[in-house]
Amino acid sequence: MTLQKRLLITILAAAPFAWLLTLGLTYYRTRVEINELYDTDMVRMAQQVHALLPRFSTPDVLAGSASETGMAGDMGYAGLGDIAVAAWLPDGKRLQVNPEGDNLPVNAGKLGFLDQYFEGQPWRLYYIEAAGPDGWRVGVGQRLGERDELVYTYLLGQALLWIVGLLVLVAVLVFGVRRALRPVVALSTKIARREPNDPTPMDAAQVPGELRPLVLAMNQLLGRTAQAIESERRLTADAAHELRTPVAALRAQWDAAMRTGDPVERMQAQRNVEAGIERLNHLITQLLDLARLEHSLAPAFKDVIDWQAVVRQALSDCLLLAGRKGIDVEVLWPEAGGTPIPLSGDQYLLTLLLRNLLDNAVRYSPDHATVSVRFDVDAIHVENPGAGVPSEQLERLGDRFFRGAGQVQGGSGLGLSIVRRIAAAHGLSLALANRVEEGRVTGFRATLRRERSEAGAAPDQVPPRLRIRPPSTK
Q: What are the φ and ψ backbone dihedral angles of 8, each rounded to 5 degrees?
């Protein structure tokens, strides 16, 4: 249900309810006021009759009758049948004050107001009597229907005006709601007509102030969506480009193996096919890892990382490559009592991070060299010997599919990009630099660092130095 329909239904339900509530309150107050007015008149009339009766209590007056009392002149709209007055002498004899009072009940012993049915209609009666056995008794009665008629006549006259006012009010409210929600309808129509790939921000200055936060939030969402789409598009394009090369190379080597009759050449072609398949498998694995990272949100990490388990798994994944090149990997832990960079995070992702760093270090180290992984209380350093990286290429390390010119080692240029993404998700920064000793480049160093240490559980006791030598592949 739309917001406009909800508002209209609320108004159409609330306005009649408020109208009926007002009508009920008006009826109650009108009835109270009319009862108060008529009760006051009845009391005053009874008091006046009671005060005047002793002065006219002569035999001639007592012998008179209502039929003998002449009335002349225009009586207007007087309704004499709705009010009655009666009086009783001390001996109980009725004194006729007006013809309507002939049937008024005496109700001896009762004083003040009471409601009573007689002659088939409800009446309101009021009695007053002088103290003592010789007191006069006066009764005044009024038909309650007279009061009800006055109340209903008044309310009917008001209700007709209120009905007209209610219709006008509802029409104005409906018009006002539709007009007020017109910018919302226009905004929704504009959004519905936008192209799916249109990242252009909407103009927040042309919408009411209440909608401006919504438009700004949508613009931010459009920006993030555009970045995600562009990242996805770039990843797809780069992946397609990078996959084309190893697939073409595999096809060429396979054709060479199938066409040659020389066993030596066929064996070499098969080895080239095997290397191409390995490279292709490595590239696909990294693409899948990168795609997973690109589509994941920064999680709320709670598990304390077990660095020993991370190192064991990362070394196990790199052991085959290190064995082929005869490379040793040494792991240096903090001195006794030190804690290797306490961190809460995803252990699988951090294993992937360390594996990529080790894979790069092993690939670009000379054969039979030593790769070092050193843990400090606030950093992790991965170092390898070698010629280093030209200074003009250092800044581009970590870009997707970037590989320096003249590289002979197989790779896809995605490893450091994955490392940066995982490090950022865990609040770590990655610094890449050449290792310089005595003024010359002796290797390469990747450093993961966090400015402030995070409280965590103390790790198990670990040896300060651990050297892992891969098994010989010979």
A: -65, -45
Q: 380 forms bridges with which residues in the sheet? A: 375, 448
The CA angle 76-77-81, to the nearest 5 degrees, is 120
Residues across the chain: 474
Q: Rounded to 5 degrees, what are φ and ψ at 262?
A: -85, 120
Q: What is the CA radius of gyration of the chain?
A: 52
**Close Cβ partners of 85 (under 8 Å, ≥ 6 residues apart):** 45, 46, 49, 97, 98, 100, 101, 104, 138, 139, 140, 141
| Of 6-15, 244-253, 460-469, the least confident | 460-469
Question: What is the average pLDDT across 291-318?
Answer: 74
Pairing of strands 328-332, 370-375: parallel
Torsion of CA 453, 454, 456, 462, to 10 degrees: -30
Tell me the three state secondary structure of residue 37.
helix
Question: Strands (DSSP E) along 333-406, which ranges?
Answer: 370-375, 379-385
Report d(CA 104, CA 113) in Å as an integer: 14
Angle at Cα 276 formed by Cα 274 and Cα 282, nearest 5°? 105
**Angle at the Cα of 239 from the Cα atoms of 237 and 242, rounded to 5 degrees:** 110
User: Is the CB of residue 431 less than 8 Å from the CB of residue 446?
Assistant: yes
Side chain identity at 25, as an amino acid letter?
Answer: L
Residue 136 contacts residue 93 (beta carbons within 8 Å)? no
User: Which of 451, 459, 447, 425 has the alpha carbon at shortest distance from 345?
Assistant: 425
What are the beta bridge partners of residue 436?
A: 441
Please give the average per-residue pLDDT across 35-60, as a whole number: 74
Task: Please say whether the beta carbons of 147 and 36 come within 8 A.
Answer: no
The pTM score is 0.46
**Is 150:34 a contact under the CB 8 Å cutoff?**
yes
Angle, alpha carbons 410-416-417 (nearest 5°): 115
Percent of the chain with pLDDT over 70: 74
Q: How many CB atoms lie within 10 A of CB 92?
A: 9
- Tell me the HSE value of 106 on the side-chain side, using a 13 A CA sphere: 14
